[in-house]
Write a structure and sequence with these properties.
Length: about 325
């Protein structure tokens, strides 16, 4: 569905995309994960024909984004970072208007609006003007509007930015439903758990380049088979223990009010745990407690980018 080959884009001296290549199969969900400035939105804008690349090539649904932009636009819908709906119209009026713009005809536009109102649980609010909607309701309407025309590919650019946890989970459910119905989805996000929950494959963008790519499980394997979290009585002790253990340490010391924890990559066996404890004992370090945890995308992201995000481990015990 999407084929990107050696794509590059710069604005003056600022290189935003640097030789990016990736493929997205039809009927799958792909997440571009990265921090602000990583190049995620620029890539989406190139694929949706809003921006021209400096080098490389890209095709969407078999059409070249530069040479056949009209065919590309006919194959896609784009939901940007901010809701693009008319606040002075009702939710239903927004949907019908988009249907008319998509040339569904009066009856077809109304029928499609009714279908989407039901699919996105908007019936209670459909007759109200959008200016009175909550952020979550606007986002759901925005997603519904982008699906008025049934296209094979949906771009979601940081779809849950600014949403509260309840609204975020509701939108995640809607996106999963779309994927289950066969829609190909390319989403950008800074949220590790969002990529983990929604994507079949993930590409991690860092400084404009693809630092890693794979399924969520494949990427987690890069952070080691399992993590051993060892807690000490002070940050000073934890830091010294981390220095002793060297390259086995994943991320950095995690501080709490009265202790500090070091995460150590192991193969998950009892012998590996014993080896770590023996090394600590020989160095004169006494652990307060320990627990095992599976690696998460936080750990992968930290390893690849040098950015720490160590508060989201899945406890295995």
């Amino acid at each position: 569905m999407i084929d990107v080959r050696a794509l590059s884009k710069a604005y003056g001296a600022n290189v935003v995309l640097d030789n990016v290549s990736l493929q997205v199969l039809s009927g799958t969900s792909y997440a571009l994960l990265g921090q602000n400035g990583a190049g995620k939105t620029t890539l989406i804008r190139i694929l949706s024909t809003l921006v021209t690349a400096d080098a490389g090539s890209a095709s969407v649904n078999g059409s070249d984004v530069a040479a056949d932009s009209g065919a590309v636009r006919a194959s896609i819908s784009l939901t940007g970072q901010h809701a693009a709906v008319d606040e002075m119209l009702t939710g239903r009026e927004n949907l019908v208007m988009m249907g008319r713009l998509r040339r569904l005809g009066v009856r077809g536009a109304r029928r499609r609006a009714d279908e989407l109102i039901g699919a996105f649980d908007l019936a209670e609010f459909a007759g109200r003007t959008v200016k009175g909607y909550s952020g979550g309701m606007r986002r759901r309407l925005d997603l519904a509007v982008s699906l008025v025309a049934e296209v094979p590919l949906l771009f979601l650019d940081e779809p849950t930015t600014g949403l509260d946890p309840v609204s975020r989970n509701q939108l995640w459910n809607e996106v999963r439903e779309l994927g289950a119905r066969g829609t190909t989805i390319l989403l950008t996000t800074q949220m590790l758990d969002e990529a983990d929950r929604l994507a079949d494959r993930i590409g991690i963008l860092h400084d404009g380049a693809v630092a890693a790519e794979g399924t969520p499980d494949e990427l987690k394997e890069r952070a080691g088979g399992e993590l051993l979290d060892v807690t000490f009585d002070s940050a000073q002790t934890a830091s010294a223990a981390a220095d002793l253990l060297g390259s086995a340490v994943r991320g950095t010391v995690t501080l709490t009010a009265s202790s500090a924890t070091v995460s150590i990559g192991t193969d998950g066996t009892a012998n590996a745990v014993k080896d770590v404890l023996d090394r600590l004992a020989l160095g004169g370090f006494a652990a307060r407690s320990l627990s095992t945890a599976r690696p998460t995308l936080d750990d992968v992201f930290a390893d690849l980018t040098g950015t720490t995000n160590t508060n989201n481990k899945e406890q295995a015990a």
